[in-house]
Each structure stands twice: as C-alpha cells, then as structure tokens.
Amino acid sequence: MEVLTLTIQKDLDVLDATFAAPDLTTFCRLDELGLVVLGQHLQPDRAVLACRVVEPDRWCRECGCEGRARDTVSRRLAHEPLGWRPTTLLITIRRYKCTGCGRVWRQDTSRAAEPRAKLSRTALRWALVGLVCQHLTVARLAEALAVSWTTANDAVLAEGQRVLIKDPDRFDGVKVIGVASPATPWTAAGAASSRTCTGTAAARTTLFTAPAGPCTPATTSSPSANTSA
Ligand SMILES: [Zn+2]
C-alpha cells in the first residue's frame, strides 16, 4: 500500500509567531491573580505550584512610610484542577515592618483570593460553573479541589450569591424562570423533591432561562411550569 508523506520545509529552531514560549504562570492563569509560579511539585493525584506575589506592597497604609522586608509566610489555596488533578497554590507572601510607625503587614493577595478564603478566585469560578452549568455535585467539586465538602459548599454558595443573586442586572433579557431539582430535573418527581433544594437551587434559578415567547401559566405541580420574570 502506498503511503503518502508530506514534506514541510521548516526550521524547528525558529518559533512560529502564533506560539509564545511555554509559560506555566499564564497557562494556569495565575497572572490574572497577581501571582507568578516559581516551581512545581507533581504527583499522580495532585499538583502543588509554588508561587509568589508579583506586586511589592512596601508602603505603609497608616503613615505612608516605606516598610522594610521582615520575613515571609505561606498561604495555601485550592486552584482550578487542571486536567482534573487537584492543584494547590503554595504562595510565599512577604511581610513588611514600617520604618515609621512599626506596623507589620503582608503583601496584598486580594487579587488571588478573599482574605480568609481557601479557594483561589479562579477555583471559585471553576466550581460555580461546574455546579450551575455542568451539574456537578458539591462532593465532586470538593474532590477535584481537594477540599472538604463544607469548604466547597460554603465557597460556592458565597460566590453564587455574589455573582448571581446580588447582581442587580441578572434578569436583564430573561423572559422565563424555572427551578429544577438536582436529583431528578425536569420531571414531576423532581418537583416533589425540589423542596430539598437549598441555596444551590436558588443560584441555578437565574440560569434556567428560556428564549422570548409565550409563558406557561405558573403552577406548583410540575417543574415544567414556568413563572414569568
Ligand atoms: Zn507606618
């Protein structure tokens, strides 16, 4: 059998303009969090990325004097599970002491996560999309993030409140709203069990929308019944 071969005249040492040099920081979208990767520790079932904060934070917010670098502390954040392998950020954070008033503070990591959060902002968004759009369970999210069920549940509900529920424009363009049970969506049985829904179902409510058209009169007996927004 004849085999066709295609000869490409290309110097492998010359980079194609389409591709940038491989960069773990941008690949993991840590540049969006104000972090840069310093090292990686890969295991079959998890990955740890050593990071540091890019921006220095050496000016005192109390008196405006310059701070002197004092020491460092570490913070661990669950990150988006790349390739479904739990990925943890081990962030080294510099601490400063003010040369004027003596105040001590840490580098600002608010771009990466909320002050006492255990999940990065990227992980929060990943988990919320997984729950709302891909219908993953909280247990599956927690497993992928390598955090406890409670941690995942609390974090996702808080993010859902912030992004979905508290958004004053969330109903813009929405014509119909429905609620589906996580157990048996869009069935009569689902309607009966929908009373077990918690804030999770509330978060989903804003996404279960239908295109413009006539609305079905609202009832409480069927999940296919819709309520006009
Ligand atoms: Zn000061």
Describe this entry's structure for a reader.
It is a single chain. The model is unreliable at 184-229 (pLDDT under 50). The chain has two domains: 24-165, no CATH class; 176-228, no CATH class. A hairpin with a 5-residue loop joins strand 4 (87-98) and strand 5 (104-106). By secondary structure, it is an alpha+beta fold. The chain has helices spanning 24-27, 121-132, 138-145, 149-165, 188-193, 199-205, and strands spanning 35-43, 46-53, 67-79, 87-98, 104-106, 176-177, 209-210, 227-228. The protein is built from six helices and eight strands. Helix 3 packs across helix 4 and helix 4 runs parallel beside helix 6. Strands 1, 2, 3, 4 and 5 form a five-stranded mixed β-sheet that branches. A three-stranded antiparallel β-sheet has the order 7-6-8, with no helix packed on it. It is extended, with a radius of gyration of 24 Å.
Beginning-to-end CA distance, first to last residue: 65 Å
- Number of extended strands: 8
Tell me the β content: 15-25%
Spans of at least 5 consecutive residues with low confidence: 184-229
Q: Compute the gyration radius: what is it?
A: 24 Å
Small-molecule components bound? zinc ion
What is the chain-wise order of helices and strands? HEEEEEHHHEHHEE
Structure summarized in a few sentences:
This protein is an alpha+beta fold and 229 residues long. It has two domains: 24-165, no CATH class; 176-228, no CATH class. The chain has helices at 24-27, 121-132, 138-145, 149-165, 188-193, 199-205, and strands at residues 35-43, 46-53, 67-79, 87-98, 104-106, 176-177, 209-210, 227-228.
